[in-house]
Design goal:
The N and C termini lie far apart (about 80 Å). The chain contains 26 helices and 25 strands. The longest helix has 26 residues. Helix 25 runs antiparallel to helix 26. The strands form six sheets. Strands 17, 18, 19, 20, 21, 22, 23, 24 and 25 form a nine-stranded mixed β-sheet that branches. Strands 1, 2, 3, 4, 5, 11 and 12 form a seven-stranded mixed β-sheet that branches. The protein is an alpha/beta fold and about 700 residues long.
């Protein structure tokens, strides 16, 4: 019996999991999951920890926020640098210790008011935001300082923070990079600000940050774990508790001495963090305490540094021992406890005890034990032991089910499971030739632009691989939004969305965004980018099985399907990525937030009556999208003038659009048509839909 136990592979696997968890924890392989455990423990720390030790240092730090209240009164956006200079001068007059300006001044102002701001910076003790620059291998290359005029007048500190996960951005730590600390402004802005406040010079050595008499131990990556402060229940953001709007400091001309004296209580001898905390700043980030502004992260970091870094990552030895004892308890239970119920109860006690120890360590002692790696190793170990007996008992049945699953998966590649639901069939073998159903649903056609030109430079094998690589990237998006791929059309596809028309638009936008990411990959591989066109319409169609007895396939038919295909073809004519029909446009909820512009009245092939078509340009590259937004008003006015046959005004408006946005092919089409009608005139029975699809 001893020999059999010694040879049991599941026990050896548990030991292997122990050794694998050590490097996994050191290099934080599962940082995304660990961040969730950190978030839960931090919430418990706020509820059960000793609040006097956690509360924010609002007697030493204040946030001066340029927020919605400010801009509502300011009546403009963005803030002029001359007015920012007034704010800084007025704050400086109240004798703060240091002013941390969490704003980037990489470029000079177009309004010529930089000297005023530079003068204000020179008068006050200010820290400006800079950025670290990294090469393609993520190695430090240089510091991107503010514009020289400002850099000469102020110290700087970088605002770069990295997420612990490459999948989801979540900022919970401050990394201090070794390379730039010897350079001007080579410290994080929080460290630089606190150093100026304390009047000391920080040093970094052997994962230890020294700030005067304060010694702060960092983790293996030179990272400080930020101890985010608790907020009152009626506060969503830190500036609501420890902040004041910058509007109070914009103009002191109407204030008497008593009012200025009251304002000085907010500022005098404190660290002032001046930052844009409006929605327009887009300066919000995920953190263990939820979505917060960048300035709040800086304030929390300074608070953490003042407290000496109360949250400390457990050492590798501590992490390894905790994992070892948990796995040892699991193995011991598996060997000596045979009753399944008692075993399950004791295993639950072991896991709950471990979770309790990790929570208590974090809440009361600031010791951060990485729970994910031990829990994954324990879960996998328990699963392997339980599954071992199950696999041997159910082996034959498992093999049969596995074979059936493979067959079902193979069949589903040719006739999707959704077809069975449409046709009210339980199994693929029940499907008969001619089975069909009629219903209304959204249809999407998509196609790669200029695929023939692309394929000319590729071998047949490269063509085949390219199409499969593209379809492999975009096809899952259709299923993600509850769509059904009816068929592939070479480099394109037809899909239908039976549940919600908006699913088709969401899938189309995400598909376009994936193509942009795919183009980055192609660019890095030395290949040309690709572009796709998407047409979306909604209408009735027949969905069913066509072919003959020896060869059948699912398909959909109707005039609305043909119309959708024509819409996709029009994307190339108008130089846009996504076109929807008027029927689809009318299905949108009035509260939708899509960027949409009416394109034209057209007569598509196969239809005599013109239809209205619209463009959704949310997934355009940011520069193109911004230009369409910027020229939207003139574009609409140009269309209105054109359809009212005021061609002279239409020409002027579309010329203005093209001056701002030369790549707008739709405006070029209108300009060409308006010029032609202006010169040649229009006939009495002029058709507003003079674009016909070939």
């Amino acid at each position: 019996m001893t020999g059999k136990r010694f040879l049991r592979y599941d026990i050896w696997l548990i030991m292997a999991l122990l050794f694998l968890s050590m490097p996994a924890e050191y290099y934080e392989i599962f940082s995304l999951v660990e961040e969730q455990f950190i978030s839960v423990r931090h919430s418990l720390r706020h509820h059960f920890g000793y609040l006097p030790d956690l509360w924010f240092e609002n007697d030493q730090i204040v946030l001066v926020s340029i927020d919605e209240v400010f801009f509502d009164e300011y009546k403009g956006f963005p803030l002029k640098r001359s007015d920012l200079a007034k704010i800084i001068n007025n704050i400086h007059s109240l004798k703060p210790s240091v002013i941390c300006v969490d704003l980037l001044f990489k470029y000079s102002s177009a309004y010529g008011d930089d000297p005023e701001l530079a003068d204000a910076l020179s008068n006050a003790n200010t820290i400006l935001a800079s950025q670290l620059m990294f090469d393609k291998q993520q190695r430090f290359s240089e510091i991107s300082y503010p514009a020289p005029l400002f850099h000469q007048q102020s110290k700087t500190g970088y605002v770069n923070m990295i997420s612990t996960s490459s999948l989801v951005s979540s900022l919970s730590r401050l990394r201090i990079y070794n390379e730039p600390v010897s350079l001007d402004g080579g410290w994080p802005i929080a460290v630089q600000t606190l150093s100026s406040y304390l009047g000391i010079t920080p040093t970094l050595e052997n994962n230890t940050l020294r700030m005067g008499n304060q010694t702060i131990v960092l983790n293996q990556f030179n990272e400080l774990i930020i101890d985010f402060v608790p907020l009152p229940h009626d506060c969503l953001f830190l500036n609501e508790m420890a902040g004041i709007t910058a509007l109070e400091f914009l103009d002191f001309s109407d204030l008497d001495e008593e009012e200025i004296h009251e304002l000085s209580f907010w500022i005098k001898d404190k660290i002032v963090i001046l930052a844009d905390m409006s929605e327009e700043s887009h300066d919000k980030f995920n953190s263990p305490v939820g979505l917060i502004y960048g300035a709040e992260i800086i304030a929390n970091t300074i608070h953490t540094l003042m407290k000496g870094g109360p949250l400390q990552q457990a050492s590798v030895v501590t992490e390894t021992l905790s994992c070892f004892f948990v796995l040892l308890g699991i193995v011991t239970l598996m060997f000596f406890v045979q009753d399944p119920k008692i075993r399950a109860l004791l295993l639950s006690i072991v896991m709950v005890s471990y979770l309790f120890i990790c929570a208590i360590s974090y809440i009361y002692y600031g010791l951060v034990l990485s729970m994910t790696y031990t829990l994954i190793a324990a879960f996998l170990g328990i699963s392997v032991i339980f599954l071992r007996s199950y696999i041997f008992e159910r082996y034959l049945k498992y093999e049969a089910l596995k074979y059936q699953a493979v067959l079902a998966k193979s069949y589903s590649r040719f006739v999707p499971h959704e077809y069975l639901g449409f046709l009210s069939k339980d199994n693929i073998v029940d499907v008969q030739l001619g089975d069909h159903i009629s219903r209304e649903m959204a249809v999407m056609f998509s196609d790669i632009r200029s695929f023939t030109t692309l394929s000319e430079g590729m071998t047949p094998q490269e063509n085949f691989d390219f199409v499969n690589a593209y379809l492999n990237r975009v096809s899952p998006i259709v299923r993600e939004y509850k769509g059904v791929i009816v068929k592939y059309l070479g480099d394109g596809m037809m899909a239908m969305f039976p549940e919600c028309p908006n699913d088709a638009i969401q899938a189309g936008l995400k598909k376009l965004n994936h193509v942009l990411q795919y183009n980055d990959h192609r660019k890095n591989s030395g290949r040309n980018p690709i572009h796709i066109g998407i047409g979306i319409h909604i209408g009735h169609m027949m969905v069913g099985i066509v072919g003959e007895k020896a060869r059948m396939q699912g398909d959909a038919f109707s005039d609305d399907v043909n119309l959708t295909s024509r819409l996709e073809g029009l994307t190339k004519m108008y130089g846009v990525s996504m076109i929807i029909s008027e029927a689809m446009y009318l299905q949108l909820d009035a509260s939708h937030d899509y960027h949409i512009r009416f394109l034209d009245h057209v007569k598509v092939k196969g239809r005599h009556r013109p239809i209205k078509i619209y463009e959704i340009y949310d997934a355009d590259p940011p520069a193109i999208r911004d230009l369409k937004i910027k020229t939207y008003a003139q574009f609409c006015q140009g269309q209105e003038s054109f359809f009212q046959q005021n061609f002279t005004r239409a020409i002027t408006l579309f010329q203005n659009v093209l001056h701002e946005f030369p790549e707008d092919k739709t405006s070029a089409i209108y300009l060409e048509r308006a010029t032609h009608y202006c010169n040649e005139g229009v006939c009495i029975d002029w058709d507003i839909a003079d674009i016909q699809q070939k």
